Structure to design on (726 residues):
C-alpha cells in the first residue's frame, strides 16, 4: 500500500510561473523563456488550482534567481504526471484509477486534448489522431531535490503508482525544470483528500536492494478491482465485475499442493458494506479487497465527521427505544470486531467517505457526496400528488367526514371544534409539504382520559412523519440537553408534561420547550463523544389530562391550546366496534387521509398564528407570576397594585381628628411611584413582606432583580438624592 503522510500545510501549493509566457505563445516559444520565473503559493483547493492551470504556465520546482534551468532547481514541490499517449482516457482515469489513491490529486486536460496533431518525420508528414491528453497534479508531503527526482524516475515507482495502461505516461514530466503550458479551456477534476503522497516513500523506493528484499518478505494478502480471477468453469472474471457470490480458484494459495487441482477451492462474495472478500477453503483463510477500492455507493460505513469516528448506516437496535438510524462504534476494538464478523478489511477505515451528520427534511436522504442525512422520506412524502384536486381549508372537515369518517370523528372528539381541526391540519400540512420547522406548538388537554390522543399520534401522524423520526414519550423525559434521539426527530409528542409534585421540574420543562420550539440550532451531547451543533427540526404536540399542565406567559406566542370538555372515551364513539378492530379501521382510511393532507391549500399565515382560546386564557391566568406582576406595577407606576394604605396604616393619633387620614409614608411612596416610578429603598422591606409573605426579604429581592428591577440613586432635587428601587 502506498504510504501517505500528513503535513501541517496540506492546504497550499508552491510553484513557479512566468507572466511573460502568454496563452497565445506556442509551447516551444514558452520554453525559451528561461528567465523571470517567480515563486507563488496558492491554496490547495479546486478553485485556486483551476485558476492556475487555466491562466498561468507552471513549473513543479523553485529556481535560484528565477532561471528555469536544472542547475538552478532548489526543490521540487509536486508532480504533474503527463498522460499524452496510450489508451488511457480522462474519464477512465478519474473513475477507476483515482479512487485507488490514498492521497489528494488534481486532474486537468492539456491544450492538445482531443486535437489531431501533425508532425514531419524523415521528410514525411505523420498524423496523430485525437486522443485524451491530461495531467495529474500530485503534491508531495515535503519538497525533494533534483537528484532525488531523477532517482525516483529510474526506480519505476511512478509507473507502479500512476500508470493505468502500458506506456501511457510521458516520463519527461519529472524533469525538474520542465514547464507546463496554461490551458484556458481545461476540463478539471479535484480529488479531495487530507493526505499528500509521501516523499519518504518515493525516496525509499529508489533503494532497489531494500525494495527487492522487502518484496520477498511480503506476501500479497489483498486483491484489487483490476485483478482477474479464474472461475470454477475456468473462465475469467474481473473483480470489478463480480456482482454476486462466485466459486473461484484461490489466487493466493499454492495449487500444486492440492489434491483436486481442477476443483474450485474458494469463493468471492460481497460483504454487508459492499466490499468483496475471498474465502479459501484450502487454507481456511479470508482475503480482502484492497481497502482503497471501497465502493462508496454500496458502503454502509462512513467516517463520521461530526464525531470523529467510524459509523455504520442502516443500524437496527434490539431496543425499541433506540431510534438511531446509524451506529457509532464505541472504540477501535468495537470497529475491528464488526469487521471480523462481516469479512471486512479493517484498513477500510482509512478510506471511508468523510461525511457530516445532519437531519434536514428538505435535503436528500442518506449518504451523499457532502453529508449523511438522517431524514428518511415516508411513502406518503414520496408520492406525487400534483395531479390530485386541491383541497381548500373551509371544506377540509366536511371532506374528512365523507372520505375518512373514523379519523374525522376521532379528531373532532379530541379538538372539539371544527376550527381547531382545520388549524391543526393546516399546521401538519405545512410541516409535511415544506419540510420545515414551525415556530408554534400544540397543547391538547382533556378532562376525560382515553379520548384518542395517543391513537392520533401513533396511528395517524406517525406513518406520515416516519416511525423513527416521530416519537411520543413521557413529559418527564424532557432533558436539559439535546441528545441523539432529538437530532433525528421531525415530530415529538410529550404525554403529561405536568407533575403535581415537581414544581421546579415543571418550570424547567417549560423553559426547555420554549427554547426548543423556536431555536433553529441544537447542541447534541452523546455519551463519550464531543458535542456538536446540528439543525433543529423538532415540532411539538403536548398532551395532558391536567387543565393547567404548563406555565404560560400572558404574551405567549408559541402554544395553541385546546380543551374539549365534551370529549368522550374512544370506546363511546360511534365508529368503535371493539378494541381489536380499532387500529385496522384507522389504517383503512390512512391513504385517503394522507391524500387530503398533502393536497390541502394550507394558509402559511396561520401556521405560526396561535389560537386565542379560552383554554389558553385559563392557563395564562393560572400562570401569573407574582414577581413579574410586582415589577410591571413598579415600572408602570401602578399605585393601586401596592395597597399602600394597607401596608402603611396611619397612627391612631392622626385618625382621631380625621377618619380618612392617610400615613405620611403611604403618601410619600405614592408620589414617588407617580413621579419617578420608583420606591424609596427605606420602604421596600415592609412592602415586600406584605406582598410575598413568609419568604425572606433577601430571596425576594433577588427574584425581583432577576425580573428587571434595580436599586440605584434617585435625584429628587439638586440637593437631595436617595436610594430607590426602579
Amino acid at each position: 500500500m502506498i504510504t501517505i503522510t500528513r503535513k501541517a500545510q496540506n492546504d497550499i501549493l508552491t510553484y513557479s510561473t512566468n507572466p511573460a509566457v502568454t496563452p497565445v505563445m506556442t509551447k516551444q516559444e514558452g520554453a525559451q523563456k528561461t528567465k523571470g520565473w517567480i515563486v507563488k503559493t496558492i491554496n490547495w483547493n479546486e478553485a485556486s488550482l483551476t485558476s492556475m492551470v487555466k491562466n498561468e504556465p507552471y513549473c513543479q520546482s523553485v529556481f535560484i534567481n528565477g532561471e528555469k534551468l536544472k542547475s538552478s532547481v532548489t526543490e521540487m514541490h509536486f508532480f504533474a504526471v503527463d498522460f499524452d499517449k496510450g489508451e488511457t482516457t480522462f474519464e477512465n482515469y478519474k473513475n477507476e484509477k483515482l479512487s485507488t489513491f490514498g492521497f489528494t490529486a488534481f486532474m486537468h486536460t492539456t491544450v492538445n486534448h482531443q486535437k489531431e496533431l501533425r508532425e514531419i518525420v524523415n521528410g514525411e508528414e505523420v498524423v496523430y489522431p485525437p486522443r485524451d491528453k491530461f495531467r495529474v497534479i500530485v503534491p508531495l508531503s515535503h519538497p525533494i531535490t533534483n537528484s532525488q527526482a531523477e532517482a525516483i524516475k529510474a526506480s519505476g515507482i511512478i509507473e507502479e503508482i500512476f500508470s493505468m495502461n502500458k506506456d501511457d505516461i510521458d516520463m519527461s514530466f519529472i524533469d525538474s525544470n520542465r514547464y507546463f503550458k496554461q490551458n484556458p479551456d481545461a476540463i478539471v477534476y479535484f480529488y479531495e483528500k487530507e493526505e499528500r503522497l509521501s516523499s519518504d516513500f518515493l525516496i525509499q523506493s529508489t533503494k532497489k536492494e531494500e525494495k527487492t528484499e522487502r518484496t520477498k518478505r511480503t506476501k500479497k494478502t489483498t486483491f484489487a478491482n483490476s485483478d482477474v480471477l479464474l472461475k470454477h468453469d475456468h473462465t475469467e472474471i474481473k473483480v470489478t465485475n463480480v456482482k454476486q457470490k462466485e466459486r473461484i480458484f484461490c489466487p493466493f494459495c499454492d495449487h500444486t499442493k492440492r489434491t483436486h487441482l481442477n476443483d474450485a477451492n474458494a469463493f468471492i462474495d460481497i460483504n454487508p458494506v459492499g466490499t468483496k472478500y475471498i474465502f479459501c477453503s484450502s487454507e481456511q483463510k479470508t482475503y480482502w479487497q484492497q481497502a482503497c477500492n471501497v465502493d462508496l455507493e454500496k458502503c454502509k460505513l462512513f467516517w463520521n465527521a461530526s464525531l470523529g469516528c467510524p459509523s455504520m448506516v442502516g443500524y437496527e437496535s434490539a431496543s425499541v427505544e433506540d431510534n438511531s438510524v446509524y451506529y457509532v462504534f464505541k472504540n477501535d476494538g468495537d470497529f475491528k470486531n464488526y469487521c471480523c464478523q462481516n469479512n471486512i478489511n479493517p484498513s477500510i477505515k482509512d478510506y471511508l467517505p468523510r461525511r457530516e451528520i445532519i437531519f434536514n427534511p428538505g435535503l436528500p436522504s442518506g449518504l451523499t457526496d457532502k453529508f449523511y442525512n438522517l431524514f428518511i422520506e415516508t411513502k406518503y412524502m414520496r408520492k406525487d400528488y400534483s395531479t390530485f384536486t386541491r383541497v381548500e381549508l373551509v371544506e377540509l372537515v366536511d371532506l374528512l367526514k365523507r372520505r375518512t369518517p373514523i379519523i374525522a370523528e376521532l379528531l373532532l372528539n379530541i379538538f372539539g371544534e371544527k376550527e381547531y381541526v382545520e388549524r391543526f391540519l393546516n399546521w401538519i400540512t405545512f410541516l409535511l409539504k415544506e419540510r420545515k420547522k414551525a415556530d408554534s406548538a400544540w397543547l391538547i388537554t382533556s378532562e376525560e382520559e382515553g379520548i384518542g390522543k395517543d391513537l392520533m399520534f401513533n396511528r395517524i401522524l406517525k406513518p406520515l412523519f416516519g416511525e423513527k423520526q416521530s416519537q411520543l414519550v413521557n413529559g418527564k423525559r424532557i432533558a436539559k440537553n439535546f441528545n441523539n434521539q432529538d437530532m433525528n426527530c421531525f415530530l415529538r409528542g410529550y404525554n403529561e408534561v405536568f407533575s403535581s409534585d415537581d414544581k421546579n421540574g415543571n418550570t424547567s420543562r417549560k423553559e426547555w420547550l420554549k427554547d426548543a420550539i423556536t431555536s433553529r440550532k441544537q447542541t447534541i451531547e452523546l455519551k463519550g463523544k464531543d458535542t456538536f451543533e446540528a439543525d433543529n427540526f423538532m415540532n411539538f404536540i403536548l398532551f395532558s389530562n391536567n387543565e393547567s399542565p404548563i406555565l404560560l406567559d400572558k404574551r405567549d406566542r408559541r402554544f395553541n391550546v385546546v380543551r374539549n370538555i365534551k370529549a368522550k372515551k374512544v370506546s363511546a364513539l360511534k365508529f368503535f366496534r371493539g378494541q381489536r378492530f380499532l387500529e385496522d379501521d384507522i389504517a383503512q382510511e390512512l391513504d385517503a387521509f394522507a391524500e387530503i393532507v398533502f393536497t390541502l391549500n394550507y394558509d402559511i399565515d396561520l401556521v405560526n398564528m396561535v389560537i386565542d382560546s379560552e383554554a389558553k386564557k385559563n392557563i395564562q391566568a393560572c400562570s401569573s407570576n407574582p414577581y413579574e406582576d410586582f415589577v410591571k406595577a413598579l415600572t408602570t407606576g401602578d399605585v393601586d397594585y401596592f395597597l399602600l394604605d394597607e401596608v402603611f396604616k396611619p397612627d391612631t393619633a392622626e385618625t382621631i381628628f380625621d377618619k380618612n387620614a392617610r400615613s405620611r409614608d403611604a403618601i410619600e411612596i405614592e408620589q414617588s411611584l407617580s413621579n419617578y416610578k420608583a420606591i424609596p429603598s427605606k420602604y421596600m422591606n415592609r412592602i415586600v413582606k406584605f406582598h410575598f409573605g413568609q419568604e425572606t426579604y433577601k430571596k425576594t429581592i433577588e427574584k425581583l432583580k432577576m425580573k428587571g428591577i434595580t436599586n440605584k440613586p434617585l435625584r429628587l432635587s439638586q440637593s437631595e438624592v436617595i436610594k430607590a428601587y426602579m
Q: What stands out?
A: Residues 219-357 form one domain. Confidence is low (pLDDT under 50) at residues 1-8, 209-218. The chain has four domains: 4-210, 219-357, 393-621, 625-725.
